[in-house]
Write a structure and sequence with these properties.
Strand order of the largest sheet: 1-2
Shape: globular
Distance between the termini: 48 Å
Number of domains: 1
Number of helices: 11
Helix content: over 70%
Order of helices and strands: HEEHEEHHHHHHHHH
Radius of gyration: 24 Å
Largest sheet: 2 strands, antiparallel
């Protein structure tokens, strides 16, 4: 993030590092990034409660549901996109059964990423300075905010939830025997070699979900921090360098906004693929034709 958040810090990368803002013991506490994860969860809940209140039912059928308001329509559009373009092509007839989990994952990560782009710490520091607070207090509030998904302490639990979902849905929909068959796709005598590799592969897939999200969200902040650090290093030419940094930082900020949305999509998309690979998503042609016919009649 370009802005006063970085300029307000003595260390250009100070804003991307975790800081304990709620100490629990002398050695550890709740970091600013994990706290922002709680804030994101609360905002997701509040936003969707609001969106639900903007839905009106009039008549019967699919056209009976009318969503009022730009923000509510935006959330509804994103929900429809995740369902129709991400979940349904992979989960097929299981889509509506598990779409709520996928919606939760997508919007939680999206809100974490977007909130992380707001310079909350810099704003709080400026307000503290204007209100006459001490320098110590101003430095403390400068650590507020942060990107929750830029912390592996949050990303790994989300990856673990994905692992639980893969195992649970795979066993529930296909049965325990069918689930175990995925770990030994070759001849029986190859099982002692294949089973450990397949289990390791599943764990690595989930771990990579966390690492990819962490690395990507951290990268944008670090690049901007390096840009900002060029200003004082330039000496007398800092004003010319500063203009270049501002323009380049603005372009990077737009790119980071796109990446924030893209990473939420990728995490959700890969989670869906992993679930579909273990769940029973096969649908016979007759059943599929019956569903299409029923939908046509409903319209």
């Amino acid at each position: 993030m370009l802005n006063a958040w970085t300029l307000a810090a003595s260390d250009p990368i100070d804003h991307v590092l975790p800081h304990n803002i709620i100490p629990i013991t002398d050695d550890w506490g709740i970091s600013n990034q994990l706290f922002m994860g709680v804030v994101a969860a609360v905002l997701v809940t509040v936003c969707f409660l609001y969106a639900a209140s903007r839905i009106r039912v009039s008549g019967t059928g699919a056209d009976a549901y009318i969503t009022k308001g730009v923000f509510a329509n935006l959330l509804e559009t994103l929900c429809v996109f995740i369902r129709n373009e991400v979940a349904k092509p992979n989960l097929k007839h299981l889509t509506d059964k598990y779409i709520k989990y996928l919606w939760t994952v997508f919007f939680f990560i999206l809100f974490c990423n977007l909130i992380g782009m707001i310079p909350i710490g810099a704003i709080a520091k400026v307000i503290a300075g204007l209100s006459g607070a001490s320098k110590t207090t101003a430095n403390q509030v400068s650590h507020w905010g942060g990107t929750a998904t830029g912390n592996l302490s949050l990303n790994f639990p989300m990856a673990f939830c994905a692992l639980v979902a893969i195992v649970y849905i795979g066993i529930k929909e296909g049965g325990f025997r069918h689930f175990l068959a995925h770990f030994s796709p070759g001849p029986g005598y190859m099982a002692p070699l294949l089973v450990p590799l397949e289990i390791l592969g599943l764990l690595v897939k989930c771990g990579v979900l966390a690492m990819r999200l962490f690395g990507t969200m951290m990268a944008g902040h670090l690049v901007l921090a390096v840009f900002i650090s060029l200003i004082p290093a330039a000496g007398l030419a800092m004003y010319g360098i500063g203009i270049t940094v501002v323009l380049g930082g603005a372009a990077l900020l737009i790119l980071e906004l796109f990446i924030a949305m893209l990473q939420a999509f990728i995490f959700t998309f890969l989670t869906t693929l992993f679930i579909a690979s273990f769940a029973v998503v096969e649908h016979d042609d007759h059943a599929e034709h019956h569903e299409e016919h029923a939908a046509a009649v409903a319209h």
